[in-house]
Amino acid sequence: MASRPDAARPVARARNDSRNVLVVDDSAVARLIVQRVINETDRFFVAGHAASAEDALDQLMRTSVDLVVLDIAMPGMNGIEAIPHIIRKSGNAPILIVSSHCREGAELSVRAMAMGASDLILKPESRAENEQFASALRAAMIRLTEGRAEPSPPLVGPNGTDTAGAAATTQIHRPVKCLAIGASTGGIHAVSQLFAALPRDLAIPILVTQHLPADFIVYFAKQLQVTAGRRVMPARDGQRVSNTDVLIAPGDAHLTVVRGDGDLYVSFDRAPASNGFCPSVDPMLSSVAEVFGDDAIGVVLTGMGRDGVLGAAELADAGGELLVQDSESSVIWGMPGAVANQGIANLVAPPADIADHIARRAKAFGCS
């Protein structure tokens, strides 16, 4: 983790290889339950606990942490308001939301993820759920800490160039006619960052596959529309694709596109993906490769696993451009790392730099 100039000497760890966790919840009972789960593991150590966001921010001035477990509903500054402050004070430590309020609706969960939370799990409602909660908490903590990769290594791109930085990218001298974006864990925040930096008048079809349950999709679309400044909607099977809309894959089908009668249409694919995800990034990128070839850009952002690597390879074979998120800004460098390590990425960079590259290419060929 990067050092912070405003941070004091970090607290001692229980073991050299343990991960420091800060637990933030106004409920003493909830803090005790979470701390008990953490103390039963060999990988994690409770570096501190706080009953308010304000107290948590104060502790982060003195304590180095690898993970923050955060409740949403708290007196004073609530958890969602605190997320960007915690990210800054902790040196970009992942934030795991543990809250019963996420049970009441997907909108609150999406808001938390859009603000920068990495993942979320529900608090147990009864003692009968405690063991299931403990298992989910352990799995989430491992996923969010063990999945964080070392800094992105220098990579060799399709033309032999170093692709480790935003300035070192293969130059594509073609217009961009379609943008396809895939993401998973941490992706809601990364996608939001990318769209915040994209020109709002980018006149090309934009497709997004984010691993989310079906109930979350409509709220994700609403949240992203605010950030993007353009119409964002869950895709509908058979709808005509326009150059002004952003289409989101549904939670129960893969988003693909086909040509028909000179127009572009959405075509849902419900065949099981080899990686087990639905929606999956692979079918989306494969269809974009087939329809647009070297006029397409594929973007793979933070996420666990290898979803997107097969479709990305097809897009690369078709001459399309591949832009992937760097490990330093990713919650988990699984999906983007899988593409980068195949040597087919044209650019490895944070979401805002990826957006800047897309904007410059689009502007050069009159796409915005």
List strands and helices in order, with pairings.
Layout: E1 19-24, H1 28-39, E2 44-50, H2 53-60, E3 67-70, H3 79-89, E4 95-99, H4 106-115, E5 119-122, H5 130-146, E6 178-183, H6 187-197, E7 206-210, H7 214-228, E8 232-234, E9 246-248, E10 254-260, E11 263-269, H8 281-292, E12 296-300, H9 309-317, E13 321-325, H10 335-340, E14 347-349, H11 351-364
Helix pairs in contact: 2-3, 4-6, 4-7, 6-7, 6-11, 8-9
Task: Outline the structure in words.
This protein is α/β, with parallel strands linked by helices. It contains 11 helices and 14 strands. It has helices spanning 28-39, 53-60, 79-89, 106-115, 130-146, 187-197, 214-228, 281-292, 309-317, 335-340, 351-364, and strands at 19-24, 44-50, 67-70, 95-99, 119-122, 178-183, 206-210, 232-234, 246-248, 254-260, 263-269, 296-300, 321-325, 347-349. It has a 7-stranded parallel β-sheet, with helices on both faces. The protein has a 5-stranded parallel β-sheet with strand order 2-1-3-4-5, sandwiched between helices. It has a two-stranded antiparallel sheet with strand order 10-11. Helix 9 links the parallel strand 12 and strand 13 (321-325). Helix 4 crosses helix 7 and helix 6 (187-197) packs parallel to helix 7 (214-228). It is elongated. The two termini are 38 Å apart. The relative contact order is 0.12. Residues 1-14 and 155-168 have low confidence and may be disordered.
